[in-house]
Amino acid sequence: MLPISSPSGPLTASSRFYKICAQVLLPSFRRHQTTARRTRSRLNIKPDASFLPTKTEQHDHIIFNPPPSMPNVYHTPNIFLPKNDQRKIQKSSSQQLPPPMPKQPEKRYHLTETDLAEMRSLRSQDPLEWSVKKLAKKFNCSNLFVMFVTEKLAGQKKEQQEQVTALVKSRWSDKKRIAREDRDVRKEKWFSDA
């Protein structure tokens, strides 16, 4: 096989074949000259004046070159402001600590078995009058504690509430009943993939 001459030197048929394959079959692996570095060096773009070293100062210094935008006092970092600058004083005074968190009340175990029995009996006698909130206020404890103590009695209250709800629903018009049923269907669809 005869070598083919090129400006860089002779090319053999096999090296020419690999070069054609690289140009045709693998264009994504070629390096393009569209990178910023090559563009800058080709166009010979000078850097911004703020990045150039000053001719008057001989020592090294920090270069602060914020992005081009509207001038804003908040853009100037605190380190670049003089000590007696008014903006620095305002920034430090506005950065006060938030108020302290209130102390959590200590848990009290002041209720006896007789108090718990009285709480259950009041709730079982009249659950509408002796609500969880009212019992918690009377015995000076949390609503959650009252619900734990009177948990077994919650079934009676639930039955009464269901009867009241059924009575209210029986007075609904057809239009309102259909609207409520549609709302329930929409809520069920929230949790399904359909």
Automatic annotation (TrEMBL):
The lineage of its organism: Eukaryota, Fungi, Dikarya, Ascomycota, Pezizomycotina. InterPro entries: Ribosomal_mL58 (IPR024388). It comes from the Eukaryota. It comes from Exophiala mesophila (Black yeast-like fungus). One of its GO terms (molecular function) is structural constituent of ribosome. Residues 86-106 are annotated as: Disordered. GO terms for cellular component: mitochondrial large ribosomal subunit. This is Ribosomal protein L20.
